[in-house]
Design goal:
Mean pLDDT: 78
Helix content: 25-40%
Strand order of the largest sheet: 5-15-16-17-19-18
Bound molecules: 2'-deoxyadenosine-5'-monophosphate, fe (iii) ion, zinc ion
CATH superfamily of one domain: D-family DNA polymerase, DP1 subunit N-terminal domain
Radius of gyration: 26 Å
Shape: globular
Low-confidence stretches: 66-213
CATH topology of one domain: Helicase, Ruva Protein, domain 3
Amino acid sequence: MGLIEDLLGNNYLITPSAFFLLREHYPEKFTLAQLIKFVKSKGAFVVDLEIAEEFLSTLGLVTEVPLATSAGKSDESGESISHEDASLSSLEHEEVENEILANPIDSTAENEAEIESSSEVLDSYVSTGEAPYNEAPDIPVFENRGEKANFSEGESFVSTGASEAETSETPEVDFENGYGGFEDNAVDETMTPPDQEIEDSESSGEYNGENGGIPKVLYDEYGVPVGYVEEEVLEEKSYSTYSDVVITPKPGFSYRAASIEGDWALIFDVKNVKFTPPKVKNASGKEGELIVKVYSNYFKSRLKKMRKILRENPEVGGVIDIAKLSYVNSDEDVTIIGIVDSKRETRKGYMFEVEDGSGTIKVFVNRENEESKKFFQIMPDSVVAFRGRYSGRNIFFADKIFLPDVPKFKREKPPLEEKVYAILLSDIHVGSNKFCEKAFERFLEWLNGEVANKREEEFVSRVKYLVIAGDVVDGIGIYPGQYNELEIPDIFDQYEALANLLRNVPDHITMFIGPGNHDAARTAIPQPGFYEEYAKPLYKLKNAVIISNPAVLRLHGRDFLIAHGRGIEDVVSFIPNRSHHRPAEAMVDLLKLRHLAPTFGGKVPIAPDPEDTLVIESVPDLFQAGHVHVMDYRIYNGVFVINTGTWQAQTEFQKMVNIVPTPARVPIIDVETARLRAVVRFDQFCEGM
Ligand code: D5M
Ligand code: FE
Ligand code: ZN
């Protein structure tokens, strides 16, 4: 196999110019593993000329092909389709406006204004996207956000655009005050953002203290950080991997769920998707050909899936290809469906650049039109439909915008014979010195029957499933300075420790465990699973099923969409008034766009697989994510949307960027309704909170 195939087989890409540079040395002078390790260390999954050159120089190999770096680079960036390329630079703004000037359309006041406003073009990405982490903590939500308030005020459940019927669902949700003797605290507890007193000066440098320097990171052959090597001879581990944590069911405790038959199926898992790498004739084709092909296949797949979703909406009719617009009369209403390459605000309204495989067009929506508000919800690279008229001159005047969205009606499911509960968790971060180990152990005891009252007993007795949506361990080398906050500085031991805790989950409870960005797994999403070499202890748990990120799990006929949720970060950057502290709102935005991470080239690395598996193809009953470490939930058009928070107290990094986590809360989901039944809190046991 050649270098191209070898890289593709591992989900890595190479540009032809990089290929020319490297092929003469491969595989004699370097191995695939070496190259992948290097590329991964750059946080990339495309081997471009710059990376190839740097790689060769680290090997002490000098390129024999005289290529000017800068020229090569600009060639390549011209070829690749990234969001940066698609977004409007100021130069492009000028081009756009000039085009309008050069091709004046019928002289409606609107168009004249459009022309006049050329100097006032705003780029709404700039105004909305910047510095979400630096803003003052926008967390009114915490001020009166005790669980009580949450449940009694229907308000927090009313989602943007949800049908009224939804509010009637709130009464079925109730709240359990908490664990053991802590009810009093829990009842009128209001979250206070952690302040200085939490700062634990001892916590930093615990490890460094021992041998002074920063230890060396050890990578495996595929560039995954594996562990740290300390300079001194390793003595016995100074940390626990919880091998002594043995919790057994409380004698006499009876589990109803043990006699309820399990009914689950993984109806979508990335591992089961067969990807065929794109065929290119040979690598000596045009510069960038391969990458263009890979990306265009990816977008074709996205477009195809989204078209299908949009066409399910009976209101979306009369769809035609952009290329055929010139054949329709200017007074005829038609619909186009396309990927939004870019969007911007003008004085009179909003302009989109839309592409559908047959062509590209500018779409204008007047600000006076209520529909124009949807402008803010449309993330770059998402797919939407516009209905309106084509006036010629490559501008489409839309008066209606359709997001793919979720139908308003509730999906009725046949009732279940017995109550069954599922617990949804995420972001456990085992290995972090901020991991709330005591709280987690109390939770395990609770699952084993150490309950405070009859109500809790009923919950525990009927828990049949436990889902963990990523960041199950803290990993190593995930962010600069992480070492100082690691309790377990070895990735193998982190998974060992997690498994040692999870083996205390009673046998009749089936666990579904998927990866997140802190796990030993592919960096880009989708993530097929954990790398088996590192997460072996998890694979060995007899009642655990390893799932991909994302995955769709069907429990007793109810579909649970489970994702780690990195796309939330992009929503917070691109959509105004979104916050890390209200992730359910951002998750609803993703649902409306029917995609888990719409934007290419944003914060979230997305692998351009031949199939876009991040499209939310079918409407779930429940949508779970984690990642932002804040528990939050709401109902949107019949879908229960929940962010399941974390088991990690605030890290130094989160302190810096004003992220206030809500650790150690256990949401109990009634499988029949796919709704929240209760939240049981263990945060009293979480040190540092
Ligand atoms: O993510 C935990 C939270 O921290 C989540 O809200 C994202 C945020 N986070 C994580 N890394 C970064 C960087 N590098 N910049 C800004 N915000 C970040 P977790 O995936 O658990 O680390
Ligand atoms: Fe996390
Ligand atoms: Zn995460």
